Amino acid sequence: MVVNLAIDEGVENAAGTAPVALTRILVALDQSDYANNAMRQAVRLTDGTITGIHAYAAKLHDRRFKQMEGGLPERYQRESEMEHQREVHEDLIGMGLGLISDSYHNAAAEVAKAADVPFQRLSPEGKNYSCLLEAMNKAEHDVLFIGALGLGAVAGSTIGTVCERVVRRANMDVFVAKDRRLAIGDGPIVVGMDGSPKSFGALLTAIDLAKRLGAKVHVVAAYDPFYHYVAFNKISTVLDEEAGKVFRFKEQEQLHEELIDDGIAKIYQAHLNVAETVAKDAGVDVVCELVAGKPYQAIKKYVEKHNASLLVIGKTGVHADEHLDIGGNTENLLRMVSCHVWIGQVEHFPPSDVVAEETIMWSDEASEMINRAPEFVRGIARTGVIRQAQKEGHTFITTRFVQDVMSKMMPGGGGSKDAVQQSFERLEWAVDARAMLDGIADEAVRENIGLRAEKSARRDASQIVQCVHVEPFMAEAALEPAVRDDITWRAASLARLQRVPEAFRGQVKTAIESFARDRGLSVVDSTIEDEAFAASRMSMCPVDNE
């Protein structure tokens, strides 16, 4: 049995606060490999009781059988035979399903017994997800452990319907076992940080789990500096000149460019700084990293790069409203990552933010100024001002202070007209970079990645889009399959191929793929290309050894 590791000694964990309590774990059972691993992880973490739950739908089976009676073969249509089959089926429903449920509980009880963990049983009648939600709504448990897939899993499945329905409607933390064998702690525990109370709650839960298991904690914050460049370029195609003047389009674009590039990056870095302080106060050193890109894609890449065993994220993020059931990034990550996922609902407000909100006052003029910021960044800007005020020791915020902070967040103060115009003009492309982009089959994806690559070039102060600006986004692209589906081309190799004269390109591609297949390879990279070209030259110009 492990001992509960509270972040603040002597302070009992209250409902809805972080870290989540692990004294009353509910585990969904169905004897699938995923559910079995969820049970194994639960016994490693709990400091209390585990309750196994398995629902069996006797009424549903009974109703289905009655609906099928009229379609049974002719030999079952005699009255005596039909009555006999009804009795057999009633026995199967009445006792058989109960015996199956008992067997699931017995297997889980053995796992709990081996770890000296108390085990309780729940075997409600009804649909699986409904029974799970009903048990969770009774507030008798702290967290649900569930397998991502059940016995009905087929190739290509990522999340089962029961898991998806439960996670979306859950009122408590949920651990989803995404791997049949992976144990929490086999790799680092990664926390997705966006500055929301739930993300800080996820951090404290991750720290608690890491202490129990001796695992490392990584905290990653992701922001997307490319989205608004894409959005503004798309808007520009539908705004006429008069509408552009009314909307003050180019000034708006420049404002967003500077705010996204510099301001939001600084705010998310500030979240990481606060996270590092929270972790140190808990006696844990964490690895913090700020990454750029579509948040769920950037976090997924980070998780894969560091071979994480668990991703801990808030169920909703900083932009959530009260009606949102699950955040978009959380939902995508739940489906896409291969490691386990912990979806948190407990919240934590870092002491520095709480103190600042309580002790710092705003002048009416300063409050009005911050409220003029675009709605989607207003909260971020306010947080930045408050944190800077606390850092400098101010307790009263004026318009001048807001302007000073905003000028640091948005260097250039809106930019000159030349800068605005330069920001909007499209960049030229290097030939190989354009070839790489043209290799993307999906036109919509190609256009989106092209704009993101241009934005990346601007961030590097480059006047020409190079391959290095395109490559980071190529993982999002669906490249044309090369002749057969068994060969995949690396983006750089495909770009290199595009430089071959079009009249010979098809032959060269076929020859390189054939060369790769002969060597049992399925990926064409620069090494394979070089070897293929060398072999081709040798065959055309053999060396005379005589």
Q: Please, could you describe this protein's structure?
A:
The protein has 546 residues and is an alpha/beta fold. Among the domains are: 426-480, Proto-chlorophyllide reductase 57 kD subunit B (Helicase, Ruva Protein, domain 3); 483-546, Orthogonal Bundle (Helicase, Ruva Protein, domain 3), CATH 1.10.8. Helix content is 53%, strand content 12%. It contains 22 helices and 16 strands. A ten-stranded mixed beta sheet has the order 3-2-1-4-5-10-9-6-7-8, sandwiched between helices. Strands 11-12 form a two-stranded parallel ribbon. Helix 17 packs across helix 20 (491-498). The radius of gyration is 29 Å and the shape is globular. The termini are far apart. Mean pLDDT is 78; it is low at 1-15, 411-424, 478-484 and 539-546.
CATH class of the domain at 483-546: Mainly Alpha
Alpha plus pi helix count: 22
Envelope shape:
globular
* Largest beta-sheet characterization: 10 strands, mixed
In short:
The protein is of the alpha/beta class and 546 residues long. The protein contains 22 helices and 16 strands.
How are the elements arranged and paired?
Blueprint: E1 24-28, H1 33-45, E2 49-53, H2 58-68, H3 79-114, E3 119-122, H4 128-137, E4 143-147, H5 161-169, E5 173-177, E6 189-192, H6 197-213, E7 217-223, H7 227-236, H8 241-247, H9 249-281, E8 286-292, H10 295-305, E9 310-314, H11 328-336, E10 340-344, H12 351-359, E11 361-362, H13 364-371, H14 375-392, E12 396-397, H15 399-409, H16 417-424, E13 428-429, H17 431-438, H18 443-459, E14 464-465, H19 467-470, E15 488-489, H20 491-498, H21 502-518, E16 523-524, H22 526-540
Parallel strand pairs: 1-2, 1-4, 2-3, 4-5, 6-7, 6-9, 7-8, 9-10, 11-12, 13-14, 15-16
Antiparallel strand pairs: 5-10
Helix pairs in contact: 2-3, 4-5, 7-9, 7-18, 9-14, 9-16, 10-11, 12-14, 13-15, 14-15, 17-20, 21-22
